[in-house]
Amino acid sequence: MVRMRGKRLKGRPLRRYALFVALAGLFAILLLQTSPRLRAMVDPARTMAADQLASSARPGLWDRITGRSAREERIRELEAEVRELTRYRQVAISMAARLESYEDMLNMMGEPPVRGVTARTTSETNGPFREAILVNAGALQGVEEGAYAENEGGLVGRVVQLGERSSRVLLVTDFNSRVPVVGEASGMRAIVYGDRDDLGTLTDMPEKGSFIEGERVLTSGDGGVFPRGIVVGEIVERSGDQRVDFSMTRATGGFVRLMPSTKIPKPEAYPIEPYVPEDDEATETAASEEGDDPSGNPGGR
Any residues with CB less than 8 A from the CB of 162 and at least 6 apart, and which? Predict the structure, then answer.
């Protein structure tokens, strides 16, 4: 009996310790499920361990034949990509909020409201020296003469003929078009015009420097025809020369967006009137009523 009681007394602390450990484990799991900070700290290690366990398991012959292993591998890759994109999304949201607060602090002027018309391409005119398209939107729909057209790829061209219900757009791939551009990375400026091989030719380039192969080419805004920052294409190498691969050719929707060109008036068009304080205005009014000149000469002499 004494031995049995000793064994029972020895077993009780072990049970108590096991109960305490189980309760602590349940409490830790509860904290992990409810606390976002702890979950963010544990998730990378948990996902890494899960990926290691999944990669260590070799797929069977039947899984290889049915393609199940390939699907599971693709699912794991997509899950890893989603986790990476989620992290970048959080960074982008925080940077956008920070940029907005900086703009509010600096009282920065925003971009003017953009208004435009979306139209469908109805027909195309191709020739050895001219490339243009007709769109089913004109003056009645709010299209202005000199407006530029763009699609999901980039700059398409500009309106050269305007009708009531249709417009003719001269494409940037045409030989007669001239688009001032600037390199996004290099900052080089040039003028692009179209050619017969559907690639743009660069002209009026500076003597020193060159574009970087693969960089994007944007409108520079010189001349006031096109606003600054519209994507035109990318720099490619052809036969030792730098050409422009137009981005508009990658779009297949058949729609274009007709946008009015940005016209910034010159300061001389709206001169600033001289400021007259209120006291001086009252003095001039009283002097005019008395018939005397404000300079002190009676009768304005």
Answer: 138, 139, 143, 144, 145, 168
Which range among 31-40, 69-78, 92-101 has the greatest average pLDDT?
92-101
Please tell me the predicted confidence (pLDDT) of residue 296. 47
Q: Contact at 8 Å (CB) between 175 and 194?
A: yes
What angle do the packed helices 2-34 and 36-56 form, to 10 degrees? 100
Strands 241-246 and 255-259 come out as unpaired
pTM beyond 0.70: the answer is no
CA–CA distance, 157 with 248 (Å, rounded to integer): 9
Say which residues have a Cβ less than 8 Å from residue 87's Cβ, sequence separation at least 6.
none
Domain topology for 117-259:
Thrombin, subunit H (2.40.10)
Output the pLDDT for position 126.
63
pLDDT > 90: percent of the chain: 21
List the structure tokens of 114.
């953009």
**CA–CA dist 83, 93 (Å, integer):** 16
Is pLDDT above 90 for 231? yes
Q: How many CB atoms lie within 10 A of CB 262?
A: 15
Element spanning 84, H or E: helix 68-106
In the chain, what are the domain boundaries?
2-105, 117-259
